[in-house]
Write a structure and sequence with these properties.
about 525 residues; alpha/beta; Rossmann fold; five-stranded parallel beta sheet; three-stranded antiparallel beta sheet; 21 helices; extended
Length: about 525
């Protein structure tokens, strides 16, 4: 982006690239505009001649042809000057002019000529990249001392590199401008000795910093499971638009949820510590005890035993998982909640290597044999559609002999197949020790009507009851998660009105409509 001759086209669904770019070009008077802005052409004209960078943000799949000469670099040379023809004007192209084009689309489809004339830069965050970002966030909140040390080391290392470059440049300049015999130039030799001593000192500090950085990284790696879980959940959220186009979540909002989850764990730990301690003294002694507790907090964190640290990381991982899931669940339709909980459970258990990804794929796709063999008379109780699925189930190693087993124990299979709750009924002897996940493969093939019940049990056993049973809506809990820049958006259906709940919050905060501190504006009233 900084060294290419072509102008940049940034693919940035999570808006991390545009945030970095605005900060980087802040001192250059960056001009931000959009194709829908009526002054867009005027802004580009002025920036081309004045040498200001331009950011054309939120592009869709097409780019206005009027700016094609700019991003296509259709430069006209006249003498020493360069010009760009924009419309009916010839603009004097300033050397410092730069154009950045930005799209939030994760998979845009631009014509080949645009891709050939621009430098495409993909800022889409990867799971490993997000994991590293979340690890930095977790460490910063849990161990601010480690985070501060690492930042200081990075700053020091940058200073060391700059100092060494300056020493090298100064030495080369002195050697190039030295007159006469350099061996008799006392000042040059003394300067060389000083430079050598300083260079040696800096190299020693660099080595010390590297050792310290390794130690800090090792201490930070303890928190990686929590960061890894956060990245897993975010990429699950990223896949939800495949279920419904309504389900779109930003990385910024997700980071807020992660911060809240980490804070809840810290608050719970503080309450537990206060609960275990003896009743505090009253008056000044209580205040002194509280102050001492706050001062010793970081020291206590640093002195965690391996067991307590592992328990803390487990608590962080679970808190991040549940808070993020609950945040997603609250904004999804009822019919999709079990699907999302199941997807989350499958991904976590695959990450733990508790289930085989190929078996998960078999469960989701339900492979059906195109030409299943004829059923024996003893297995005629199985419908033809289910029989083809049973034959397809033989592709899973665990069920490769299922048909022969059914023929050998036909009466027991008939009893299981006819049971009201097949997901908990005992299976025939050959398959009686199946774990619940493998039982779901059977249900998917033979009793799809009982699959939802099995999924509920599976999610509850793997993740906990609260992932299946959602608490009733609590407007005050929702309000606690909002602030001046985080509004609440209600998706309403006929007969649903959240106004009384919002008024309840207002009354609790002393804001009522009678004195004008609570305002209810309907659509069309401005």
């Amino acid at each position: 982006m900084t060294s290419s001759e072509r102008y940049s086209l940034i693919i940035d669904p999570q808006l991390q690239g545009i945030t970095w770019l605005k900060e980087r070009e802040k001192s250059s008077d960056l001009q931000v505009t959009r194709l829908s802005n009526p002054r867009m052409v005027k802004i580009i004209e002025q920036s081309v001649e004045l040498g200001k960078p331009v950011l054309l943000e939120n592009l869709e799949n097409s780019i206005d042809a009027v700016i094609a000469p700019v991003y296509g670099r259709a430069v006209i040379k006249k003498g020493k000057n360069r010009y760009i023809k924009l419309g009916d004007k010839e603009l004097n192209l300033h050397d410092k002019f730069n154009l950045y084009m930005h799209t939030k689309l994760s998979n845009p489809h631009y014509p080949p000529e645009i891709q050939a004339e621009c430098t495409l830069i993909n800022f889409t965050v990867t799971e490993n990249g997000l994991e590293d970002q979340l690890l930095s966030l977790v460490v910063k909140m849990e161990r601010p001392d480690l985070a501060a040390q690492k930042e200081q080391i990075i700053e020091d290392q940058n200073k060391f590199k700059i100092t060494l470059k300056e020493l090298e440049a100064d030495l080369l300049h002195r050697l190039a401008t030295a007159e006469g015999d350099i061996l008799e130039n006392i000042s040059l030799i003394e300067n060389l000795e000083r430079s050598k001593a300083l260079s040696t000192e800096i190299n020693e500090k660099v080595e010390i910093s590297k050792v310290t950085e390794v130690a800090i990284n090792e201490a930070s790696e303890v928190y990686r499971p929590a960061a890894s879980r956060g990245a897993l959940v975010f990429f699950l959220m990223n896949d939800l638009p495949r279920i419904h186009a309504f389900y779109k979540f930003s990385l910024d909002s997700f980071i807020i949820v992660i911060r809240r989850a980490i804070t809840k764990v810290a608050d719970a730990a503080k309450k537990a510590a206060l609960g275990d301690a003896e009743p505090a003294a009253e008056g000044e002694e209580a205040e002194e005890a509280a102050a001492a507790s706050e001062k010793d907090e970081e020291a206590e964190e640093a002195e965690m035993t391996p067991r307590t640290l592992a328990a803390r990381v487990d608590a962080l991982t679970e808190s991040i998982t549940y808070e993020a899931y609950n945040y997603v669940r609250r904004g999804t339709f009822e019919r999709h909640k079990l699907i999302i909980a199941t997807m989350l459970t499958f991904r976590i258990n695959m990450r733990r290597q508790l289930i085989d990804p190929k078996e998960v794929e078999a469960l989701i796709k339900k492979e059906v044999a195109m030409e299943p063999p004829n059923q024996s008379e003893s297995l005629k109780f199985i419908p033809e559609s289910a029989w083809a699925a049973v034959k397809g189930l033989e592709n899973v190693k665990l069920f490769e002999n299922i048909i022969s087993s059914m023929e050998a124990e036909a009466l027991q299979w008939r009893k299981w197949f006819s049971s009201e709750r097949a997901e908990i009924e005992d299976l025939p002897r050959a398959f009686k020790d199946l774990i619940l996940f493998h039982r779901m493969l059977l249900l998917r093939a033979m009793r799809p009507d009982r699959l939802n019940g099995a999924l509920n049990i599976y999610v509850e056993q793997s993740m906990g009851e609260r992932y299946v049973q959602q608490d009733s809506f609590d407007v005050f809990q929702l309000y606690a998660e909002t602030n001046t820049i985080t509004p609440v958006f209600f998706v309403l259906f006929p007969g649903v009105d959240p106004t009384p709940d919002v008024e309840k919050i207002g009354r609790a905060a002393g804001k009522i409509s009678d004195d004008g501190t609570f305002i209810n504006i309907s659509m069309g009233q401005g």
